[in-house]
Amino acid sequence: MEVVAGADEGATLRADTVLVATGTRPSIPPIDGIDDVEYLTSTEALELETPPDRLVIVGGGYIAAELGHFFGTFGSDVRIVGRREHLLPEADREVGEAFTDRYAERFDVYAGYEAVAAAEHDGEVTVEARPYPEAESVRADGEPVGSPEDADGVSVTGDALLVAAGRRPNTDRLNLEATGVETDAAGFIETDEYLRTSAEGVWALGDVVGEYLLKHSANHEAKAVTRNLLGDDLEPVDYTGMPFAVFASPEVAGVGATEAELREADAEYATRTYAYDDTARGSAMHADGFVKVLIDLDGGIEGCHIVGPEASNLIEEVVVAMTAGSGTVRDVREAVHVHPALSEVVDRAFSGQFSRGGGDGHHHHG
């Protein structure tokens, strides 16, 4: 392996085992004029010494949501432009819709819009966006508009532009063609179940393998690679119960399948949703949010999705049940939950009557 930049440029490194963990970087979508705009990515945004008065964010995923909350807390007037009909499109739909409703109360949300052009003049950035044809519905300035066919294009202005529209792997800078390490069409390194690449002695983990672009997932993979390198027997990486969390207001967390994924798989399932404010602690906090549970017809936990205070902590009980317990509702339902702790909302969500195949979409209390 040759070092091609930096103080050790030209040096050659040799090893029996090589681990590739070069991560990802922000991906910039093909927006007309974007190269002529002094835009921010998540990297530069966190280096600002003062928040912009008006911030336009292109993107509707985890990073856009978290940085929107971050800058909104510091007083920025935040405008978000996202392609899907609701923010956090990778979350369960019911959670994503609830999150978007809350964000529309705080910020100017343009959901179902695709940014197509950007320009900068006298310190003001303007983003032109048009309805995204693949979105099911459109929301402009926080208000529902209808279908993309019924909506007009919009111009969104601000003092700064933050592009938070996904990430791309850093493999294009590694000359992997010379190594025999294979990548997929998007540039992520392909590995087997042990995280070995197609090249002898070369392993990969973290964002660069594209499984989960999450720090705790990379930590999990690092432990697996360490065991496989130092142990006698190879063990596949177990991604069962890999959670995610969005640190915003409201907080969001989830683990396992979404309801849409179960429907797409034509799976038989049941679901139950329980509101925070129907517990003692949640009511005292005036907490707005809910826990949604998805199970198979034998009681196996398929997924759990939370929007509300401490979601990232509350999800851990379900993660433990799915990874170290029996993986059924009994793990949660039969455990004693402290009263009046916030965790009672998880207990109640797992303890009452479930509705088959999604039910009527309303909260059920037991």
TrEMBL record:
Superkingdom in the source lineage: Archaea
UniProt GO BP: 2-oxoglutarate metabolic process
FAD/NAD(P)-binding domain location: 8-220
Pfam families referenced in this protein's UniProt entry, alphabetically: Pyr_redox_2, Pyr_redox_dim
Chain ranges of the Pyridine nucleotide-disulphide oxidoreductase dimerisation domain: 242-349
Membrane-crossing segments per the record: none
Alphabetical keyword list: FAD, Flavoprotein, NAD
GO MF annotation terms: dihydrolipoyl dehydrogenase (NADH) activity; flavin adenine dinucleotide binding
Alphabetized PANTHER family for the sequence: DIHYDROLIPOYL DEHYDROGENASE, MITOCHONDRIAL (PTHR22912:SF151), DISULFIDE OXIDOREDUCTASE (PTHR22912)
Name of this chain's protein: Dihydrolipoamide dehydrogenase
